[in-house]
Amino acid sequence: MSAEMEMKQKTHQIQLAGVGGQGIISTGRLLLSVGQEEGFLVKGNETHGMSQRGGSVVFQVRIGNFNGVLIPEGEADVLLSTEPMEAVRNINVLKPGGLVITETHRIIPAISNVIKKEYPPDEILYETMKKRTANIVKVPARDIAESVGNLRGANLVLLGVLVQLTDFFDPSLVEQKIAERWPKVSDINLETFHKGMEFASKLKLQ
Amino acid sequence: MTRLETISSAKADVQNHLMLLGNEAVALGLMDEGANYFTGYPGTPSTEIIEFAIKRQDDYGIEVHWGTNEAAALEDAAAAAISGHYAVFTAKHVGLNVAADPFVTLATMGVRGGLVLCIADDPSMHSSQNEQDTRWYGRLAHVPIIEPTSPTNAYFWAREAMKLSIETKLPVILRLTTRISHGLGTVEELPRNKREPLPYEKDVSRFVSIPANARVNKKRLNEAFEYTQQLIDSPNFVRELTYGSEDVGVITSGIAASYCEDLSKKYSLDTLVIYATHPLPKEQVYRFMKNRRKILVVEELDGVLEGDIKRLAYENDSDVKIIGKEKISLDYELKPDQVEDAIRDFLNLEPIDRTLIELPMESMLPRPPTFCAGCPHRAAYYDLKRAFKNIDTIYSNDIGCYSLGALPPYNEADSILCMGASIGMAVGYAKANPDKTVIATIGDSTFWHSGISALANAIWQDVNLLVVVLDNSTTAMTGTQENPSTHGKLNIAKTIQGMGIPAFELSSFEYKEFIDLARRLIKLPGVKAIISKQPCVIYENQLIKEEKAKPKGYVEVDHEKCTMCGLCVEGLNCTALSVVDGKIAVDVAQCNGCEFCSTICPRDAFTLKEVA
After folding, report:
1. In this structure, is residue A206 part of a structural domain?
2. Count of CA atoms in the C-beta half-sphere (13 A) of B535
3. Low-confidence ranges of chain B (pLDDT < 50)
4. Which residues of chain B form CATH 3.30.70.20?
5. Nearest by CB to B372, which of A19, A54, A132?
6. Would an 8 Å CB–CB cutoff place A181 in contact with chain B?
7. Does the beta-carbon distance from A19 to B259 stay under 8 Å?
């Protein structure tokens, strides 16, 4: 039996989704490093190459006794998306009743003007997500990040929401990893992360 | 061999292990096993092996560099390994096609030091033009293949691959796939094995492959391969998971093995993981299968192991039933749920109800990759489209970021085949379609890779052709690696002028001048070239991040001037521009201030806002 099967029994599977350039990969890697610091085996996988150019991007985080790097369909505990339509695109990876944390700010694909097709209305997006789970947390992450002057910090707001709403990660370890990962801008990034935690702490969960 | 010890020591304390991409684990493993010479050509999903070696090059005191193409890089690595060094060559699967000529003959000569070819396949073609299975190349050239099953054990198997090459004197393929190369896992680094390169020794009878020597080398290869078979027929190259399913079992390898490992305990299914997939560790495999009634072979892409295992059963007059590709997809990468479905079917269990939510596809928008905001390729395609709008053109496109010119609204690709084919195919397009105007678009790295030899052919064949070299001075698609154009080391315009044809350098952001030049050149007979020279915006942003350059700012729209003609949003497909509430909106987080929208705007509605 491999060591990977003898480790602690805690498992968490998180799918991150969004658009190339939104910090999906750095957020995913940060979560892996937190899981590792807590003493768990971790596996992840990320999108490289052509799809990084403004296309849909995913990152999968697996914490616990896994050998494979891919999350099977319908097994993710959390789907965290930096864009609402991307949350829908990835909804089937979530287990029924799992947690969706999604940014509400849309990123309209440039192609919509070319093919003359409108971005889908919110009702359609959230109704589709609801078929999988009632636990949907909508976060105006970009606005929150901008309120502290962190133009590209929406991913950290969502990370704060994740850490607050689940008991998957020790907040102080996440803070430590944020400071290590972005040493030059650690103050503003920590503030952005805390804003996300604060937002989540005010939510009434079902 | 210390594989089992390695795996069990992984439980000590993962906190102290390294968090690495599979590719980084491979590079580190090879460096720790004494590899001192790395070369290759960038290609997803293989690129990060060399990139990681570049980062550690000073620490290890080793030679690391990119080559102009895979053939040149493999010849380079081969010479180092023949000289007595411990060399590494990296490429994506189709890159080995380019290097196939040196590869197959090199196998017959063997090496004096060591040579590991890290070849990364791309099942599902996340960033590739086909999903060929590199394991056939091992069989074609009689070269051993080692396959890790996870980013974590990629470190160990990279080291074993180098040891096997040194022992057998054969080049060894370390076969990777996207999910291993771009998977992340913890890696325990083990002590370095410092190896001194051997002194050079001339050996004409072995390394000069004239027919008389080649015939002797063929026998040498057969013997070396036979020796490899003996080495591999040991428990060290397999791992057996025993759960008591005496009647049935699974044989698997590569990334598929990691999915089987996660499932074999759940289904109490004995499983044999094979790490050396060529030649097959026959004794180990036969021992595992001989007393069972049926075997499921789980492998990604082609049924390569399945064929070998069926042959092994035939050779041993075994009547064990071997099930493979009739139950496991031949196409695309395997998903863990597909593997579970196949295992349940194999065990005659009811299928799992995987009710999936139906996505509202009629409402959803696709989000294909696009040129970055500020990318000069977008401007080049925009310019060309306007320059030749009433002309019957064939666009012969090529491989790189600029392949995206095939998509709307540009639609400037009649074909994309392989590296360098834009110019190579343009000859045939021109001769077969004399009534059409042929334009070849090719990037700087692809030009140096194989466009240059095709250009010599085009000039020699005297066809009418406009070559547009989209020179952003970096190998952008794979993450801005250096190539001969980087830092101005070699100049494409001067090179082409030296071949005796007209070649002009101009930025694609110079809209009017670019169109004028293109229209003037297309009237000339023969081959002529525009070198659209403008740095890659990702590369520029890296310089800004490193505080070596200043950001240009972003554009703002004057809604008084804007008439919503749509020229910018429809013609450019720029990720920074969209229509919100009936007005043009600029995403300032995306805009890089290239101002091309401003250049083409008939109302002059855009202005650059500089940032402090």
Report:
1. no
2. 15
3. 1-11
4. 550-609
5. A54
6. no
7. no
